[in-house]
Write a structure and sequence with these properties.
alpha/beta, 7 strands, 28% strand, single chain
Length: 159
């Protein structure tokens, strides 16, 4: 079977238990973190990649309180030669409401970045309307040939 010259095989979606801050695959790894416009940052990412937190906080400071105007944008922080953290600005307000249009726009930019790096994406399962989230992941990441691993936290052991 012959494929057109612009053919790109679709990426694979995998679910895993664990933490995307410590990706389970080799190659170039893009750790995707959905962030808010309030300057808050996840504890797990801080412990594993303090330089990514610094980068996000600098981005936040330089926006002078106008992060809501940047919804859908991404910011990348190279944390190792084979690992980058991609911040996708898609949550807004003190209640951190997910903006689905901003998520899709940010995933598109993240997909372009990951594809350019021949990388794969590692991310937490995003809370919200799973149908909309899955559609955005499929359209903006998988259809670009980017493999995606979605992590859920390990349940605590019962004593």
């Amino acid at each position: 079977m012959r494929y057109p010259s612009n053919f790109m095989p679709q990426g694979r979606l995998k679910e895993a238990t664990g933490n995307p801050a410590t990706p389970i695959t080799g190659g170039f790894r893009c750790i995707l973190q959905v962030v808010n416009d309030q300057g808050k940052y996840g504890d797990e990412m801080c412990r594993n990649w303090p330089q990514a937190e610094s980068s996000y906080r600098g981005w936040y400071r330089n926006c002078f309180g106008k992060m809501d105007k940047k919804l859908g944008e991404i910011q990348t922080a190279q944390v190792q030669s084979d690992t980058a953290v991609i911040h996708v600005l898609a949550k807004t307000g003190k209640d951190e409401k997910l903006n689905y249009d901003a998520l899709r726009k940010g995933l598109k930019e993240a997909g372009i970045y990951a594809s350019d790096q021949n990388g794969n994406v590692h991310m937490w399962k995003i809370e919200g309307d799973q149908e909309k989230i899955q559609a955005a992941i499929t359209e903006e990441l998988l259809k670009r040939g980017v493999n995606v691993t979605i992590y859920t936290a390990q349940a605590p052991k019962q004593g």
